[in-house]
Backbone:
């Protein structure tokens, strides 16, 4: 039963509960009009303490397509946070006005703290370099639509695996499925955090941490590219040194199998050349569209509408 | 040879890893005690080489969670009428609340602190803990 629950971390729901969300998302994709009054009279709050395009717009579009409404802010200076109000007070106030809320925050664990002070469903839309569980919903829905299911596949993760919250959430989710294998491609400084490594080790999932992309391209079913995020660095020099370390271009795509799909949570900077966009294996814009559908399904489930 | 007299009624915390005695002494606020307390640093130990000992000539409430966090091999003897009345068996705590602080500058606890700071045990052998909020892993009291 997902009604009234919050999604802060991929471990909050079990496999069956995620299955309910994906099944509904597939149903919405097949016939979106059927759901255009599902959330009539409901209000969603979008509390974005950090910039966002896809996540915020897709949540807002999702609510509008369900016949609901939304209120919120897209940067903290337009909220009482600018006056020094703490997160708990802000969320307790917002709770008085809405049925469900989405929060993005630059500090890791902020949605977890906020969830302790409200009884409405709360959704983590990204907290610093930590977790981004609804991007995982997007990624998994895309994987399912391309390859049927997530099991028995090799996943490559490339770029910033240290601060890449989408990677952390996706690995946490995939770690619950059989036959998965991970190839982690990153500079040594941007390797995945220890807690993610501990999860993978505990579940005995085969993984390799490497610094070159080409030799592993032919092993992959999915290559998940990520941006080296300027906003996560305290030191600009480190960012400049590391930002263009991995660039996926047409030449590197020659090493990949004909059914190796390229995913990226977006926004992309230089890590995927524009020339790759026309390759049918490039699926990152399909991912962005799936994001809206799966968020529609999530909102409905947490509100107990279906 | 330095001699510390035995106590009639109170607590002896023994086998504290050398160097941690003063932290424990301060954590238990024994510097404010109005009864007799003794902190012995670098005492000889057959098992540990060097160890710290705290003797408290009073019955006080001890936070065993903190002691287990420092080292579960610390021994706590409750003294009554000059004799050991009870030995307390310590454990490595699975959850630690409001004892250690997260040092990750990206963690929400670095800017807001009106809620409990919780850590969960990751590895009993290494005695490593994970921050409830940012998942950063720390070893608060390295061996």
Residues:
């Amino acid at each position: 039963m997902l009604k009234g629950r919050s999604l802060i971390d991929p471990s909050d729901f079990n496999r069956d509960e995620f299955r309910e969300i994906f099944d509904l998302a597939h149903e919405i994709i097949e016939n979106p009009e059927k759901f255009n009054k599902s959330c009539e009279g409901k209000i969603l709050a979008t509390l974005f303490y950090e910039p966002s395009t896809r996540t915020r717009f897709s949540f807002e579009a999702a609510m509008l397509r369900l016949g609901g409404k939304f209120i919120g802010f897209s940067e903290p200076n337009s909220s009482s946070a600018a006056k020094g109000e703490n997160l708990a007070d802000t969320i307790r106030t917002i709770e008085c006005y809405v049925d469900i809320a989405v929060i993005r925050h630059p500090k890791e664990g902020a949605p977890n703290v906020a969830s302790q002070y409200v009884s409405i469903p709360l959704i983590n839309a990204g907290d610093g370099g930590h977790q981004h569980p609804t991007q995982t919903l997007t990624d998994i829905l895309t994987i399912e639509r391309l390859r049927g299911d997530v099991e028995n596949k090799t996943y490559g993760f490339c770029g910033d695996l240290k601060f890449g919250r989408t990677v952390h959430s996706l690995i946490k989710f995939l770690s619950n499925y059989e036959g998965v294998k991970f190839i982690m491609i990153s500079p040594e400084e941007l390797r995945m955090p220890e807690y993610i490594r501990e999860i993978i080790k505990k579940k005995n999932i085969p993984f390799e941490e490497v610094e070159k992309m080409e030799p592993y391209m032919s092993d992959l079913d999915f290559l998940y590219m990520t941006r080296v995020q300027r906003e996560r660095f305290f030191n600009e020099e480190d960012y400049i040194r590391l930002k263009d370390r991995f660039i996926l271009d047409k030449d590197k795509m020659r090493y990949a199998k004909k059914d190796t799909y390229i995913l990226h949570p977006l926004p992309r900077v230089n890590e995927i050349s524009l020339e790759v966009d026309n390759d049918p294996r490039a699926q990152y814009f399909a991912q962005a569209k799936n994001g809206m559908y799966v968020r529609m399904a999530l909102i409905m489930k947490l509100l107990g509408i279906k | 040879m330095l001699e510390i007299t035995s106590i009639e009624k109170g607590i002896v915390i023994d086998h504290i890893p050398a160097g941690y005695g003063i932290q424990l002494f301060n954590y238990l606020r024994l510097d404010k005690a109005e009864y007799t307390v003794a902190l012995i640093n670098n005492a000889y130990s057959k098992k540990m080489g060097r160890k710290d000992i705290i003797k408290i000539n009073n019955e006080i409430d001890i936070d065993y969670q903190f002691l287990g966090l420092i080292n579960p091999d610390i021994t706590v003897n409750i003294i009554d009428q000059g004799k050991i009345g009870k030995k307390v068996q310590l454990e490595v705590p699975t959850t630690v609340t409001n004892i250690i602080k997260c040092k990750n500058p990206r963690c929400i606890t670095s800017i807001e602190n009106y809620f409990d700071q919780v850590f969960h045990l990751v590895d009993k052998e290494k005695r490593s803990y994970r921050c409830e909020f940012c998942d950063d892993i720390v070893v608060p009291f390295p061996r």
